[in-house]
Amino acid sequence: MLDFARAGAAVGATTATLEKTRILGAYLRTLADDDLRRAAVYMSGRAFPPSQRRTLGLGWSTLSKVVSSVSRHGEDELGRIFRKHSDLGDWAGEALDGSTQPSAVTLADVEATLETIRGARGNAKAAPLEALVRRMDPESARFFIKIIAGEMRIGLSEGLVEAAIAEAFGVPITQVKRVHLVTGDIGETAVRCKHGDFEASTITPFQPVRFMLASPVETPVEVFDRMGAGKVWTEEKYDGVRCQLHRQATRVELFSRDLKETTGAFPELVENAPAIGHDVLLDGEVLAHRDGRVLRFFELQRRLGRKKVVAELRREVPVVLVIFDLLWLDGRTLMDEPLTARRKLLEGLGLEHPFLLARLEEATDPEHLDRIFAETRDRGNEGLMVKDPLSPYTPGRRGLAWLKLKRALATLDVVVTAVEWGHGKRRGVLSDYTFAVKDTSTGRLVNVGKAYTGLTDAEIATFTQRFLQMTIEDLGHTRMVRPEVVLEVAFDSIQHSGRHLSGYALRFPRIVRIRDDKPVGEIDTLERVAELYDRYFGEKSEIPLSEVAET
Ligand code: AMP
User: Which of 180, 213, 440, 503 is the most buried (most CB within 10 A)?
Assistant: First the structure.
C-alpha cells in the first residue's frame, strides 16, 4: 500500500499529464496480476470495479469520526487541518501523522477490509476501518481514505489510467480503450493488456458489456453515404428500454443501458430464459406487450427500476424482449463476427415468447430504404435502425455501423392566442407564446401548447411590439392577443393533457417558421392533432416483429 501511496503522491505532484502517465505506468508494471487489478481500480478512485455493482455504504461522518478517534489531535486542530486541505484523504494524512503504529499493509489487506466494511451494517462499519487505519503509515492512510471517499484528487482521470496501462505494457491506447469498453472494468482491462489477451476470452458471462449505439442521420441518402455499404439492413426502432440478457444454465441476469442490473424488474424474462437451451448474451429492447399489442412507453415505465414486481402489475403490463443481437453463444464470443453471422445464429436459437426477434429487412438503395422507412412510420414507429450487415459489434461505440433514421414528425401550423413576458435575458420582451389549433366541431380555437424557442432576439423584439398592439386583455404577466400570428411548430411528441381545453399538449414545441403567408382560417385542426396522436403516440395496433419469432 505504501508503494501505491507513493505512486499516487508522485502523480499528484506533477501537473504534466505525460509525466503522470509515465509515473503510474512504471508503478503498474511492477505489480503482479492481483495487485495490478486492485491498483488500477483504486487509482481510478473506486473501491470496487463498477461491474461488481458494490458500494461501501460508508458515509462522510463515519470516515471523519474514525480519523478523529485515531488522531492524537483535538477537535479544533482537526478542523484547522481540514480547512487547510478541504479533502478527506489529505486531511487524514496530516491528522494521523504520528498517531498510528505502521506495519506492512498490502493491497490485498485493503481489499479485504473494503469487503468487510461493505458487508457490515451501520455502526459496525467503523471497526474494520479503524483497525486498518491504525496499522497504516500516514501516507497510506491518506490514499486509503481517498479510495473510500471515492476521489483521488490527484488529477487522474480514468482516461489517464488507460494511458498508463498502455505505457506500462506497450499496448496501443486504442487497444486498451477497446478492452475497457468490453470489460467495463479498468482492473480487468489492465490484466488483459498485460497478457496481450485482447480477443480470446473477451466476454465473461454476468459481466455486462457496454452497448453498441447508433449515430443519427436525417435521410436515406445520408445512410448510404455515411455507411459506404452497397446493401444495408434495417430494423424497426422499438420504443422501449435497452436490455442485455446473460444466461448460463439456470442463472440469468439482466442489465440496462447504463449497465445497472435490472433482473428484478422483468421476472418473465428471467423465468423463461433457461428454456432458451443455450448459454447466451443477448442484446435487445424490452417492450410492454399485451394481447398482441405494444403498450405505450408510459405503461412500460411502471415496470422500470423495480426490485420486485407484484403479480397484478405483471398482469397489467407484461413485457417481452425484442432481440436484435447475439454477442456470446455457448462460450464463444461473437462480437468480431459480422452481423450476418450473429443474426443467423440468433435465428437458429428457435426463441419463443417472451423472446422475439427484431423485424429485419434489406435495402439496396436510398429509394428502397425510403419506402421501408415510410412503411415503418405507417405502422406507428418512430424510426428505423439501419445496420451494416458486415459490421462487428463494437461495445460502447456510437459509430457508423449502426445509424438511426428518425424524421421529425409532421409540423403543425398554429395561431398565437396568448403571450407572456420572458425571464432572465428575455426580461422585458414578450417571448413565450401559447398557441392553438382550430376545433372544427365548434369553430373555436383550442390551445395545444406553449413555445419559447426558435426565434431570434430580433424577431422577438419585433413580435413584442406587434403583440402589444394586438392585446385584447392585459392580465399582467400574460396578455391575451388577437389570434392573427400563424406559426409553424415542430415538437417531440403529443400527450393527453388536462392543461388545455383541447385535451392535448405538444411536448417540446419549437417555432420553425413564422407563417405570415398563411391565413388563420387555414391553420391545422384538432382532428389533425388527434390523428397524429393516435398514429404515433397512442396505443399501437400492430407489433412489427420478425415472423421468425412471432407467437
Ligand atoms: P437513441 O436512444 O435515440 O440513441 O437510439 C438508440 C436506442 O434505440 C438504443 O439504445 C436502443 O435502446 C433502441 N433501439 C430500438 N430498436 C433498436 C434496434 N432494432 N437496434 C438497436 N437499438 C434499438
Answer: 180
